[in-house]
Amino acid sequence: MLLRHLSYFIAVAEHRGFTRAAAALHVSQPALSQQIRQLEAMLEVQLFDRSGRYTRLTDAGEIWLEYARRVLRDLEEGRRALHDAEDLQRGKLRIAMTPTFTTYMLGPLVEAYYRRYPGVKLLIQEMNQERMETMLLEDELDVGIAFGESLSRDIVVQPLLTETLALVVSRAHPLAHESHLQLQALDAQPLILLSSEFATREQIKPLLSPPSART
């Protein structure tokens, strides 16, 4: 089995037909059909239902599509790993941050990064941690920076820093002169919190009683 078989199979599945897939791959339709027949012969299963107007995956084809995509992703990841180990002077790094980090970390990070790796393109996206983990697992990101622990055992987590949160009040506020506070002291206080898009809010909410958490 060759990588060409996998690429051709995925193309036919995604384009739902041999004609469109052949055009996208810049090969003739007979050549593409022959490669798919070879793949089906090697696997000893029928991957496509060709009886209707559109070419559809069979049940076996649906299963094989998941594995074929995974193989190509793993090979691409391996190729990038070899490239990165050999030469850190070119290429790209795909990174994502939660909104809070983007606000105060992005500028210094980019400046320091390009001083050290001027030839490596930095691709930065802003997103929540859930989407970030999904993209990491699907090899659509190289690095993610977020607040919480990962929910997946397949993601390696490295602590970068520890943050301290502070309560900010006016000088005239009854709590302004308190050096230490119990969380219960905030129960009756209206609070201004970050929006739900920020991971910090989600970490604070479990510590507060419902009235404060809803403010």
TrEMBL record:
The family this protein is said to belong to: Belongs to the LysR transcriptional regulatory family.
Name of the featured protein: DNA-binding transcriptional regulator CynR
Record flagged with keyword Protein transport: no
Pfam families (alphabetical): HTH_1, LysR_substrate
InterPro entries linked: LysR_HTH_N, LysR_subst-bd, WH-like_DNA-bd_sf, WH_DNA-bd_sf
Domain HTH lysR-type, chain residue ranges per copy: 1-58
Species of provenance: Klebsiella variicola
SUPFAM superfamilies: Periplasmic binding protein-like II, Winged helix' DNA-binding domain
Keywords: DNA-binding, Transcription, Transcription regulation
An annotated Gene Ontology molecular function: DNA binding
GO annotations of cellular component type: protein-DNA complex
